[in-house]
Amino acid sequence: xxxxxxxxxxxxxxxxxxxxxxxxxxxxxxxxxxxxxxxxxxxxxxxxxxxxxxxxxxxxxxxxxxxxxxxxxxxxxxxxxxxxxxxxxxxxxxxxxxxxxxxxxxxxxxxxxxxxxxxxxxxxxxxxxxxxxxxxxxxxxxxxxxxxxxxxxxxxxxxxxxxxxxxxxxxxxxxxxxxxxxxxxxxxxxxxx
Length: 193
What we know:
The protein is mostly helical. The protein is about 70% helix and about 0% strand. Helix 3 crosses helix 4, helix 6 packs across helix 8 (about 150-170) and helix 8 (about 150-170) packs antiparallel against helix 9. The chain starts with a helix and ends in an 8-residue tail after the last helix.
């Protein structure tokens, strides 16, 4: 019985660490968020952080998973218009958390190495995102000159590229450019009879 309580406390502490890391990285940026500072916010040592996550890379990968959970971008149950709006809302929200955008971009590059702890996360996330885009932005209800898979890859590539441009030049209008691209790729369908 004590073991179950200990496990629950460990899960709760892990969640607390993730929430604190999300906050610290979102506010201070990826480069300015040290393990020491995250540990201090939670009231543990940096060594304790590594006890829960194994490495800094694993902690940061889990922070991105937690961010995805908070964003709640699962347009599979939405109409095409609602899915478009939800996707653009996430892009808008990203402009409010530059530290998390930097973390995502840096880990995405590092995760190109199959041995990196974030590699499976990025493979899975990318596949789910493209599937969601293909299901909601392509197909018979919204015909496009591109097949749904190609459409999804183009939208994902532009979204990721816009994040890099925005990190260099914060005046880049990520949601506006993405909305214009989606409108260009998916012209409105004529209303039925």
